[in-house]
Amino acid sequence: MRTVRPVLLSLGLLSTIGMASAADTTTFNVKIAVTKACTITAASATDVDFGSVLSTSTANADANGSVTAQCTALTPYNIALSAGSNAGTANDVTTRRMKNTDALVTTNNYIAYQLYQDLGRSTVWGSTTGTNTLSRTATGLNQVYPVYGRVTNPSANNPATGSYQDTITATIVY
């Protein structure tokens, strides 16, 4: 029994050595900075195609297209549409015109048109921020915006036969 007691005592002392260890903790941060960004691309835009009209037509010709924008959530932005490459007066959205693409046509080669922000075609979509641009706040997802086009009384332009086209630049400002 005498030898058992010192062995038990030694085991008891060894078990207290393991309990004497200590622990410490700390914290650290995990961070990222998100900067605002917006995109609007040609691949996301759809043409405003009026199709075919008679040169004598007095009825308005309406057509729709769209532009798609994606911005960082909660970012305010404006989408501007240029006056087009054939405007009667440079940078004047009230003088938008499509030009006849037939090389043989030399007279009556423009048809006036307008682009609007609303289905009722009452709010011109232009390029002056705060005046006639489309103003929105981003959701973080793709947002598709219709572009409403109108040729008012096509015969008033006395158009020559052929295909007409204009190129609009869409710009997003944020």
Task: Please tag this protein with its features.
174 residues; mainly beta; Immunoglobulin-like; 4-stranded antiparallel β-sheet; 3-stranded antiparallel β-sheet; 1 helix
Describe the structure.
InterPro entries: Spore_coat_component, Spore_coat_U/FanG. This is SCPU domain-containing protein. Residues 25-171 form the Spore coat protein U/FanG domain. By secondary structure, the protein is mainly beta. It has one domain (38-173): Fimbrial-type adhesion domain (Immunoglobulin-like, Sandwich). The chain has one helix and ten strands, in the order H-E-E-E-E-E-E-E-E-E-E. It has a four-stranded antiparallel β-sheet with strand order 1-2-8-6, with no helix packed on it. It starts with a helix and ends with a strand.
Present the secondary structure layout.
Elements: H1 4-19, E1 38-40, E2 61-71, E3 76-81, E4 97-100, E5 110-112, E6 114-116, E7 134-137, E8 143-151, E9 164-165, E10 170-173
Antiparallel strand pairs: 1-2, 2-8, 3-7, 3-10, 4-5, 4-9, 6-8
Summarize the structure.
The protein is mainly beta and 174 residues long.
Q: What's the structural domain tally? A: 1
Give helix and strand order, one letter per element, not per position.
HEEEEEEEEEE
CATH superfamily: Fimbrial-type adhesion domain
- Fraction in helix: under 10%
Strand order of the largest sheet: 1-2-8-6
Largest sheet properties: 4 strands, antiparallel
CATH class: Mainly Beta
Report the sheet-strand fraction: 25-35%
CATH topology: Immunoglobulin-like
N-C termini distance: 89 Å
